Amino acid sequence: MYDEPDLQADAFGEAGVIALAGIELRLDPAGGLYWPAERMLIVADLHLEKGSSFAARGIALPPYDSRATLMLLVEMAARWRPRIVVSLGDTLHDRRAGTRLGLVEREMLAGLARGREMVWIAGNHDPHAVPELGGVHLPELAVGSLALRHEPRAGATREIAGHLHPVARVVRRGRSVRRRCFATDGGRLVMPALGAYAGGLNVRDRAVAGLFAAPFDAHLIGGARTYRIAHHACAPDR
Question: SS3 for 107?
Answer without folding.
Answer: helix
